[in-house]
Amino acid sequence: MELNAISENYLGFLKILAYAINEIMLQSFMSFLMEREKLCKLGKAIKVIDSHIVCINNGDNIFGIGDYLIAVKNKKIKVLEIKTLQINGKSIERLEKTNNDVGIGLEKRDDIKINQEYSFYLCKYN
């Protein structure tokens, strides 16, 4: 086997490993914050579309693309990045007002099928 082919195989493996480690750390950190009641509760979705679009009222919370929602069901936590936002069918980068019904496009993942049984919490890094 050529050195270049071996290094490409290792590089692919290392990318997957880094993603898995990041996912585990993020899950642990969000569990830690949740146990200490440091997350903003958004509540349950008004509507869920295609297991990755959540329609919810933002209440008093301001957030944008790149922030994270925490989906909780039966004490299981999934951390999901906000990819898109819409209000009344118009795409926006960031919510500027409180108490809006907003469509939140989340990353599509095979390990979670979001439905209206989930409760959502907000965590912002910026």
Observed structural traits:
alpha+beta; 8 strands
Task: Tell me about this structure.
This protein has 126 residues and is α+β, with helices and mostly antiparallel strands. It has one helix spanning 3-35; strands at 40-44, 47-49, 53-57, 68-73, 76-87, 90-92, 101-106, 119-123. The longest helix is centred in the first third of the chain and has 33 residues, at 3-35.
**Uncertain regions spanning at least 5 consecutive residues:** none
User: What's the count of strands?
Assistant: 8
Radius of gyration: 17 Å
One letter per element, helices H and strands E, the order comes to HEEEEEEEE
Range of strand content:
35-45%
Terminal CA distance reads 46 Å
Q: Mean pLDDT across all residues, rounded?
A: 86
Q: Main sheet, how many strands, which sense, barrel?
A: 8 strands, antiparallel
Please report the number of helical segments.
1
Shape: globular
Class derived from helix and strand content: alpha+beta
